[in-house]
Design a protein that fits this description.
By secondary structure, the protein is an all-alpha fold. Helix content is 78%, strand content 0%. It is built from 20 helices and no strands.
Length: 489
């Protein structure tokens, strides 16, 4: 499979696939536009440029990159931005805790804030607060469903086999847990320690620039610019992934099966680029619309779109992985019921946690209700579902199914690029900074350079394996070429 709709078709049928293709366009565009808006807010706060201008410029840059680069460039960018961003984020977190007086002082100060007191003290939530234990539980449930559904399976398509996918999932889980602390502490410290500076930022919702404010205050000269670059790369890794997914879905799941079943590769490539451009324009336009709104924050938009639009779609895509005996229309029925509750919640003004729990419960219940209708399905569909689950539970044999890997080339390219980044980062040591700031820059450059050196070293381990795979593949090809072809009868 190349796109998640292909997995949906393998689990259900073409009708369900097309249903998910078309209803998933709007939520996907909104999600990508909010991601673009997030980094635009950060960049606008750093440089002081108008928010709308930053959204347009960054959106066009990401659009050009995703259209020209392709999927491998997207994954390479994901890796490089994480390699730069993670050490920087850890450094900002350490500096933030040091500034506020340590972890104990941070928690004590946070407990005095009404919005967070209910979660930290485990008491009844403040009537004026938007946060509570129930809100946190709803957020955890939504994230769990989002990252464990069929629609999220595309992130594992690039792994070589089941072991690689398992490692990727485990690493994601660890980084999610650790990242919750690393990413949330600095903006909280900014709101607690620099409230006047945060409110002075010239954007519709100044609180959203908290991370930028504390980065400017605590990072040594030179690293704040590097952080902007890393944040931009993080946006590219998210938005261009969405653009590539949209291009793949439009090309492989709409254009080819519905209009041009025998289209050439060149034609499909052109359609993919054209669809990337059209979706990119829609994302930029949507981000500009959200940026112009003064009465609603970025975080509130993310919560609202996630709970009302995404939850009805992802619930049946999670249930479909674990429940075999469900008819072909079960996912669509579950989505429809969830959408009804979503509409009721929107019209009634339900809070975030009520939306998530009610929509999720209704969606799962609707999916379960369809199970008795399994016995009415045709034998062909039941066999199709059996094949799907058998294939899903069968480990991938890379050498048998693919043949020759290119791990050494990828590791070597990323390793040398990482090493180059570490060397260029080292040059920032010569900027006018206190000794502590120079040492921080030196440490970051060493970490990235050492990591790049390790990648180059590890690449050499795969050369022998790939040589063996290539030799075996040539032998198989030679045997196939020498096989006698029976004459036509």
């Amino acid at each position: 499979a190349h796109t998640y709709p292909e997995v949906v078709e393998a689990r259900f049928n073409r009708i369900t696939q097309q249903f998910y293709v078309w209803i998933g366009v709007i939520p996907g565009i909104f999600t990508s536009s909010l991601t673009l808006l997030g980094v635009s807010v950060f960049t606008s706060a750093i440089f002081g440029f108008p928010l709308q201008h930053v959204v347009t410029f960054l959106g066009i840059a990401v659009l050009l990159y995703a259209t020209v680069g392709g999927s491998w460039s997207v994954m390479a960018t994901d890796f490089l931005q994480a390699m730069i961003l993670m050490p920087l984020a850890v450094l900002i977190t350490i500096l933030s805790l040091h500034y506020i007086g340590g972890l104990n002082s941070f928690i004590a100060t946070l407990q005095e804030t009404p919005d967070f007191a209910s979660m930290l003290r485990f008491v009844d939530p403040d009537p004026q607060s938007s946060f509570s234990q129930t809100w946190a539980a709803a957020m955890i449930l939504f994230v769990f469903l989002s990252y464990n559904s069929v629609t999220a399976s595309v992130k594992y398509f690039a792994t070589k086999d089941g072991k690689g996918a398992t490692k990727a999932a485990a690493l994601s889980m660890i980084l999610m847990v650790v990242g919750a602390f690393i990413w949330f502490v600095p903006p909280m410290v900014a709101r607690l320690s620099f409230p006047e500076m945060v409110e002075a930022v010239n954007i519709p919702n100044p609180a959203e620039a908290s991370y930028a404010v504390i980065a400017l205050e605590l990072l040594p000269r030179g690293l704040s610019g590097l952080l902007v670059v890393a944040m931009f790369a993080a946006t590219m890794s998210s938005v261009d992934t969405q653009l590539n997914q949209f291009a793949g879905i439009v090309t492989l799941n709409i254009y080819r099966p519905l209009f041009r079943p025998h289209a050439s590769r060149r034609e499909l490539f052109f359609i993919g680029q054209l669809s990337s451009i059209m979706v990119g324009i829609a994302i930029i336009s949507s981000a500009l619309y959200f940026a112009a709104q003064d009465d609603f924050g970025l975080f509130e938009y993310m919560l609202t779109i996630g709970s009302l639009f995404a939850t009805p779609m992802i619930v049946p895509m999670v249930a479909a992985i674990f429940i075999r005996k469900a008819p072909w229309w079960s996912a669509m029925f579950s989505t429809f019921v969830g959408a009804v509750f979503s509409f009721i919640g929107w019209r009634s003004g339900w809070v975030y946690e009520v939306n998530v729990f009610s929509i999720a419960a209704a969606g799962f219940a609707a999916f379960l209700v369809t199970i008795p209708f399994w016995r009415l399905e045709s034998d062909a569909f039941k066999e199709k579902v059996t094949v799907f689950f058998d294939r899903m539970n069968t480990s991938v044999d890379f050498e048998e199914e693919v043949g020759v890997g290119n791990d050494s080339v990828q590791l070597r390219i990323l390793g040398y690029v990482s090493l180059s980044i570490g060397i260029f980062l080292f040059l920032l040591v010569f900027l006018p900074n206190p000794l502590a700031g120079r040492l921080q820059i030196l440490l970051l450059s060493l970490i990235i350079a050492i990591f790049g050196t390790m990648l180059v070293k590890f690449s050499k381990r795969y050369i022998e394996t790939e040589s063996r795979q290539m030799k075996r593949w040539k032998e198989v090809q030679q045997n196939l070429n020498t096989m006698e072809v029976p004459p036509d009868e």
